[in-house]
Structures are given as structure tokens and as C-alpha cells.
Design goal:
Strand order of the largest sheet: 1-5-4-3-2
Distance between the termini: 41 Å
Strand content: 35-45%
Number of strands: 25
Number of helices: 1
CATH topology: Methylamine Dehydrogenase, Chain H
CATH class: Mainly Beta
Shape: globular
Helix content: under 10%
């Protein structure tokens, strides 16, 4: 299935940036810190540590918009990001300089990057950006490097076209999951969640809803990587609009002893838009966030967050408003300002 890897050209031109390595690393931590600071359940920290920092561009602006950023905890100065028009870039000095890693192999639009935690030189790249906007660009499948980007091998899945997420098992880099949205402008069968156990030589489709529903997000529980959460999104792009949501959308959970993923709860996303689920690092396994987005109403997100001091209490936020929501035995819809939350 794959193409043989080729040697990379020896000379690369670094792309300079305007930020110190410390600030570049801190930038990636700020969103998580900000989210924790907004929650009463979060542990307090000294806000003066980040008081002097501000957001600054660190490149690469000519590559186009970016929806794919990845790295490894074992290499805190090494980062990867994919662009819509320029392929994949890599920094080994915390964002001070960036190197183009995929020139003469593949390029264009990048949807997701997965870095192996056990061996950060092994990186999987899913092509095709997942926001199916009016000028969306499609990709040509999955690529892999085992030498930190010096050479690349094509692994197939070309007809998935839009890949939203690539997840690599934390201890076995041969086990990889791909969340494929599929064709943006029409139905196709190459969508859903794919899995490989041999480093991409073969792929198995492990979650499929229908030919109009793709996988919009995929999360591995960091404390138990055989537990996966997948958000499915039924959507199609028209030249004049986005048709978002439908009966195919939903949240799914799977464990290694389940051959078929089960739906995580009735009602969530059944007629809504794009769904995602987060299992944050360093927090309890069932402490999750659920986000829904739809295109038929003003943009808003519904966030469910567990109060660690009061385990039976959830907080939901829509448009910056905070209200308590008691834990119930099943999923239910809530209202936001008189209209269904989307």
C-alpha cells in the first residue's frame, strides 16, 4: 500500500520567528491554564507568572491557516504544525525557528498530526483540513515518518480526503487511530474511525455510521489508552452553505474488549452539529467536556465541566454565562436563552 521512503534534500532554510523558546512553550500552555482559571474547581496558581506575556505570531504566516499542532512531553522544545497551503513544519527550539519537513514529499492541506510519545521521531500526518468551509482543501490520506521528518512513507486512506484527528497509542507506536470526515461535498464510504496495529501497513474501519457521517474528533484516555471517545458529525458542504447535523451525529465510546463502539448517551448530537469530547491530562477519567456546534444558529458552545470538590455537580456555560446543572442518569438537552443549545 505504501510508497518507499526517499532521502530528503540536505539543505533546509530555517524560518525565523520572533519569540523566545520559553514564551513559545508558554503559549501552548495558556489555553489550558485559562480554562482552568475560569473554573472554581481548578487548582489556584500565581497569575503574575504570565502577567507580562501576550499572544504573538511565531510563524509561518505564508503557509496559510493551521488546524494541526502536536508535540511530545518528552521533548518540550520540539513542536510540529500543519498548514493549509504549506505542508508540515517542525521546530526544535521551542518555536524560535521552523523547518519545512514535507517539501517534495507531500504538501497542501494538513488536518491532523500524531506524535508517538514513546518515540517522538515517529510521526503520523493526516491530510485534508477538517473545517469544511467554503474554500476547503482536501488531502490525499496518511503519511508517516520514523526519522523525525527526514523521510516519509505514504500509508493510504486517500479517499478519506478530510482527516480530523490522528491518535497514536502512548506505548506502542504501531497502534494508530484516524478520525476521517470523508468527502466534504457528497457521500462516500471512506469515513469514520480507522485503526492500524502494524504501523499503517493495513487499516481496519472500526467505527462507521453511514456514508454522510464522518468522525470529527477522537480522544484516547491518557490513563487508559484502550478507552476511546469519538464524536461523529453528519454534514455536507454546499457551494452556498453548510448543512450540519443529522441522525448520524453522536458520541461514541469504545474499550479494547468491545469490538463495536457503543453510543455514549442518547440525545447528544442526534440532530446537532460537530461534536468533540475531551479527556484532559492529569484529571479524573470521567471529567470531560462536551462541545456542540451547529450552523443553523449563532455560534455557541455547550461545556459540561465537573466540579472536583462537588462530584455530583456540573457547570454549563453558553456564551460566557455560568449556571449549575445537576447530574442526571442520562444525557438530556438544555435550553440557552430560549433556544436549544447548539
Amino acid at each position: 500500500m505504501g510508497l518507499a521512503a526517499h532521502p530528503r534534500p540536505g539543505d533546509r532554510t530555517p524560518v525565523s520567528a520572533r519569540l523566545s523558546p520559553l514564551a513559545a512553550v508558554t503559549l501552548l500552555l495558556l489555553p489550558a491554564r485559562s480554562a482552568q482559571a475560569q473554573s472554581k474547581a481548578a487548582a489556584p496558581y500565581d497569575t503574575s507568572v504570565f502577567a507580562a506575556l501576550s499572544w504573538r505570531e511565531i510563524g509561518i504566516f505564508r503557509g496559510g491557516r493551521s488546524v494541526a499542532v502536536a508535540g511530545s512531553a518528552s521533548r518540550p522544545q520540539e513542536y510540529w504544525f500543519g498548514t493549509t497551503g504549506g505542508g508540515v513544519f517542525k521546530s526544535i527550539d521551542g518555536g524560535n525557528t521552523w523547518l519545512p519537513m514535507t517539501d517534495k514529499y507531500f504538501g497542501g492541506t494538513i488536518g491532523a498530526i500524531g506524535v508517538s510519545e514513546s518515540n517522538p521521531d515517529i510521526v503520523y500526518v493526516g491530510t485534508g483540513e477538517f473545517p469544511i468551509r467554503g474554500n476547503v482543501s482536501h488531502g490525499d490520506g496518511v503519511w508517516k515518518t520514523t526519522d523525525g521528518g527526514k523521510t516519509w512513507t505514504f500509508l493510504g486512506l486517500a479517499e478519506t480526503q478530510q482527516i480530523a484527528r490522528v491518535r497514536v497509542h502512548p506505548t506502542n507506536p504501531d497502534i494508530v487511530y484516524v478520525a476521517a470526515q470523508g468527502h466534504a461535498f457528497g457521500p462516500n464510504l471512506e469515513r469514520g474511525v480507522y485503526k492500524t496495529t502494524d504501523g499503517g501497513k493495513t487499516w481496519n474501519k472500526v467505527l462507521f455510521r453511514n456514508d454522510s457521517t464522518g468522525a470529527a474528533d477522537l480522544i484516547l484516555d491518557p490513563s487508559s489508552p484502550d478507552v476511546l471517545y469519538a464524536g461523529l458529525w453528519q454534514a455536507v458542504r454546499r457551494p452556498w452553505t453548510l448543512v450540519s447535523g443529522g441522525p448520524g451525529s453522536g458520541m461514541f465510546k469504545s474499550t479494547e474488549d468491545r469490538r463495536v463502539a457503543r453510543e455514549a448517551g442518547p440525545g447528544v448530537g442526534a440532530h446537532r452539529g460537530r461534536l468533540g469530547r475531551r479527556v484532559p491530562l492529569g484529571r479524573r477519567r470521567h471529567d470531560v467536556e462536551v462541545r456542540e456546534r451547529g450552523s443553523q444558529a449563532p455560534r455557541a458552545s455547550l461545556v459540561l465541566h465537573e466540579d472536583l470538590r462537588r462530584p455530583q455537580r456540573l457547570e454549563w456555560r453558553v456564551g460566557g454565562e455560568h449556571q449549575p446543572l445537576q447530574v442526571v442518569g442520562r444525557w438530556r438537552h438544555v435550553q440557552a436563552r430560549g433556544r436549544p443549545a447548539r
